[in-house]
Amino acid sequence: MSIKKVILYTVIVFISLSVIYPLFFTLVTSLKDKQSYFTDIYGLNISSWSIENYIKMVKDFNVLQKMLNSVIVTAGGVLLTMAVAIPAAYSMNRISKRMLFILVTVLIIFAVIPEQVTVFSQYKLFLDLDLINNHLSVILSFCAKNLPEAIMFSCLFFRMVPIQIVDAARMEGCTEPRIMQSFFVPLCLPGLSVIAVSLILSMWNSFLIPLVMLQNDNTKTIVTSLAMLDRRHGSNIPFQMAGNIFAMMPTMIFYAIFRKKITESVYENSLK
């Protein structure tokens, strides 16, 4: 075996372990009780393992409701963002290059504004609209935050569609919405899928916006609720690790179900 392959395999193994070990440690710790954890932090005494932390997380912490809240705001945010970004990106492909450059510059400016700068003005707006502790406030905030990037990348993928296809469709009498729906979206589906997956991960792990907008315990997301565990349960690390497992489960299940599609989308997009 050549030196290059040895170095390559070593790097791959190191990266794999750096990802797998934290997940393994989190899972093992979540199966311990508080006493056994502080007695032997890295121990693998299987006889002391139990699912008590998970039962307590469901009964006392109401983790399933918080996971549902996260699913609602994430799904709503992704669907709304893509529903606005796709027509906007399609429209940008019909304007001149000079105007496109100006619009992209404006989108970049909005994209780089930190959410910490705008979150409190958004809070005041939603407070006046009586939408605080309402999932709609988070969904709209997610859309406003991620829309510039979604439009830019969607526009980039749409510009790869051959103009001959569009001209032929127009000659056949297709309307602009029909052209977008029947040609642009299917042809650019791999790229749009990558954008959607990126939005899902970003919105699911978002902390600041849900923390400010959702102050009622029944409407909080799983991520913001887990951040408050220290106040209610002290330094019960195994209990917190059980909560982390619950927080990771939906994204891991999503990846397990759509793994093949996601991989194909990334591969097809890289070839383009």
UniProtKB/TrEMBL annotation:
It comes from the Bacteria. Its main location: membrane. PROSITE patterns: ABC_TM1 (PS50928). It is found in: Cell membrane. GO terms for cellular component: plasma membrane. It is a multi-pass membrane protein. The chain crosses the membrane at residues 7-28, 67-88, 100-119, 139-161, 182-204, 237-258. InterPro entries: MetI-like, MetI-like_sf. This is ABC-type glycerol-3-phosphate transport system permease component. It comes from Anaerobacterium chartisolvens. The lineage of its organism: Bacteria, Bacillati, Bacillota, Clostridia, Eubacteriales.
